[in-house]
Amino acid sequence: MMEKTQRKGTRTGFTTGACSAAAARAAALGLVSGRVPDAVDCLLPNGQTVRFAVADGRCDGTHAHAMVIKDAGDDPDCTDGAHLTADLRLLPERPGEVLLKGGEGVGTVTLPGLGLEVGGPAINPVPRRNIEDNVRAAAAPLLDDAGLEVTISVPQGIEMAKKTLNARLGILGGISILGTTGIVKPYSTAAYRASVVQGVEVAATQGHGTVVLTTGGRTEKFVMQELAHLPPPCFVQMGDFLRYALDTAVQHGLRQVVIGAMVGKLTKIAQGETITHANRAEVDTGLLAELATGIGVPAEVCAEIAAAETARFASERIEALGLSHAFHHALAQRAIRTVTQRYPGRFHMRVLVCDFDGRKIAEASSDD
Fold first, then answer.
1. Domains observed in the chain
2. Strand, helix or coil at 162?
3. What letters, b where the CB count within 10 A reaches 16 and e where it falls short, cover 54-75?
4. What is the average per-residue pLDDT within 208-216?
5. How many CB atoms lie within 10 A of CB 291?
6. pLDDT, tens digit (0-9, with 9 covering 90-100), for 166-190
7. Least confident of 11-15, 184-188, 292-296
8. pLDDT tens digits, residue range 83-93?
C-alpha cells in the first residue's frame, strides 16, 4: 500500500485481463484479415469499449501474434508496463471452440480454493470470459469452420510475480490475469481486498481449519515463528481488511482465527473498527486509558494516554512502568470480546501481540 504522500494522480489504467483480451482480439482480427491492426477496439467486462495500441503484430494463415503493453494509470502496480501477449492458432479439427491456455509468465494454479482448475493457468473467470468474448466477436467468420487456441503470456511475468502474494496462494511461475471491470482505479483498495478474500479461501483448503490474519510483514514474520507448524497458505496479510477476512473465514467454516497485530491496529480492532486504515477513524485513546486504569496504571499517566494522539504513546508509557504484558493482554482480550460479539459462536479466536521490533509481548484467546 502506498502512503498518502506518494499519491501522484487520478488517471485510470487497464487490468492485465483487459490488455490480454485486447491482444487476443487483435490477433483474431489478424487471422481474419491477414494483418494484425496497430490498434484495436476492445470490449471490457464493464461494457465499455476502449481502443488499445497493439505492438509486435504478425500473422500467417494459421497463427497470429499480438501484444498490448499494460498501462496501469496512476496506480502503483507491479504489472505496469507488462507485455500482455496473445498467440492464436487455428484448430481445424475443433470448429466453434475457443481454448484458453497460459504461456510463459502466466502463473499455474497448484492449490484448490481459487475457483480455478488446479494445474491450469491463473486466468481469473471474468478475464477468461472477456478474452473469449472478444475473440469470438473478432473471429466469427472463422469459427464456423475451425476452433482457436488462445495462449496468453507475459514475458516479464516470472519476475513480476515475486512482488505479489501469488506463491503464497499456490500460483507458481508467473502473474495472475485479473480484473473484474477491466479498469484499474488509482490507489483502489479493490485489488488488495480481493487478494485478502482469496487468501482466506486458500487457507480454508489446507485442512487445518485455521486462518492466521496479520496486519503486515512484521506481524506475519512474528506469527509464522510462533505458529511454525502451520503451512504458509494459512497465513494471510489482511492489512486493513479485517471484516472481509472474517466474513470469508465464516463463509468457509474456519473455526480457528488467529490475529497477529501491534498496538495501533489492535486498538482499532478492540474499539470495533473492522476497516482499520489510519484515515477511517481515530484511535480511541480513551479506551486505552480505561484498560490502563484496569491494570493499575497511575491516574496521571492514564490522563496523558487519554489526551495523546497515538496508541504507541500508551504502549511506551506503560512499558516504562513495567506493565507492558498486562496492558497488551488486556487489549488483546478486549479485541477478542469486540470481534466475538460481532461473530457470536462462529469461531475460536486467539490474538498474538508483538512490539515494533517483532518481539512477542502477550497473547490471549477466547478461552481466557
1. 4-184 (3.30.2110.10), 190-365 (no CATH)
2. coil
3. beebebeeeebbbbbbbbbbbb
4. 94
5. 24
6. 888 889 999 999 888 888 766 556 7
7. 184-188
8. 999 999 999 99
Q: Which of 262, 282, 287 is nearest to 338 (CA)?
A: 287
Contact indicator for 179, 148 with CB cutoff of 8 Å = no
284: helix, coil or strand? coil
Q: Helix count (H) and strand count (E) of the chain?
A: 11, 18
**Could you give the CA distance from residue 89 to residue 52 in angstroms, rounded to a whole number?**
22
What is the rounded CA–CA span in Å between residue 270 and residue 334?
5
Q: Which residue has the cell 495523546?
A: 308
- pLDDT over 70 (residue 57): yes
Per-residue CA distances from 339 to 185, 209, 247, 266, 367 (Å): 31, 18, 11, 11, 14
pLDDT tens track for 270-279: 999 876 554 4
Q: Which tops the pLDDT comparison, 358 or 25?
A: 25
Is pLDDT of 22 > 80?
yes
Cell of residue 124, nine digits = 481469473
Q: Which residues of 295-332 are buried (b: 16+ CB within 10 A; e: fewer)?
A: bebeeebbebbbebebbebbbebbeeeebbbbbbbbbb
Residue written as grid cell 498501462: 71
